[in-house]
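Our preliminary data section would be incomplete without showing what the modeling component actually yields. Below, a chain of 113 amino acids is followed by its predicted structure, encoded as tokens that our downstream tools consume directly.
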Amino acid sequence: MSNWEKLLPMVQLSLNDRILGRHRSSSFACIFTRRLNTAHDYININIRRVLVEVLLEKNRKMVEVIYPTLEERSKEKAEKECEVANKKGRIPSEVLLVQTRVMKTVNVWQSKL
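Predicted structure:
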């Protein structure tokens, strides 16, 4: 395909609308505090404007309620993944400090990455 750059914005949008397993939310919803609009022709639709106060309240709720909840879900998911990895013996026996740099080799012929 010679015009791949024309498709890139749509690919990025669909990736942003994908529900992530770590916190069970889409990136779009986390950023804009709403779901992505469905693909319709919005030319003849009267779009209702939202008051600034309503937007500020939504953002306040996101900061105070939603973001901490997403962080907690993400931590729980990471802990479960660590437990599974520990049971399989895939990590070193010594405890690694936070922000310790590690390297992983990936066999590109067998990996799904």
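The longest strand covers residues 19-20. The CA atoms of residues 5 and 11 lie 10 Å apart. Preliminary results of this kind motivate Aim 1 of the renewal.
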